[in-house]
Amino acid sequence: MSDTERRLWYNLRDRRFLDYKVRRQVPIGPFIADFACKSARLIIETDGDRHGFDDQQERDVRRTLWLSQNGWRVLRFWNGELASDMNNVLERIFNALEEQPSP
Are 88 and 39 in contact (CB under 8 A)? Predict the structure, then answer.
């Protein structure tokens, strides 16, 4: 994990965040999610620089589509966001966890 991912994980682990159980490196179908909360059907992805290239962006779109079609919601954050605005990231995760997932 990068330093920014470690900081995010520190906030999410051990039910520290709204008492939701968040796991890291979670196998879901053919993919491994960076972080996932199964009860909220929420995946949190942290993207580094390589995700800015066209081929990786296409893979990310296909991955998000597959996950969405299988009942998961996906939040993506750039590592730069994690480094510069962790409070906003945590607020967005909070809002997503509190939303009721679609059936």
Answer: no
Which pTM value belongs to this model? 0.84
Write the pLDDT tens digit of every residue in 16-65.
878 899 999 999 999 999 999 999 999 999 976 554 446 667 888 899 99
Give CA–CA dist 98/75, Å, rounded.
Answer: 14
Could you state, in order of their start, the residue ranges of all structural domains in the chain? Answer: 3-98
Q: Where are the beta strands (DSSP E) in 12-99?
A: 23-28, 31-37, 42-47, 73-78
Distance CA 8, CA 74 (A): 16
| Closest to 22 measured CA to CA, from 83, 103, 90, 100 | 90
Going across the sheet that includes 42-47, the strands are 23-28, 31-37, 42-47, 73-78
Q: Provide the CATH number for the domain formed by 3-98 in this structure.
A: 3.40.960.10
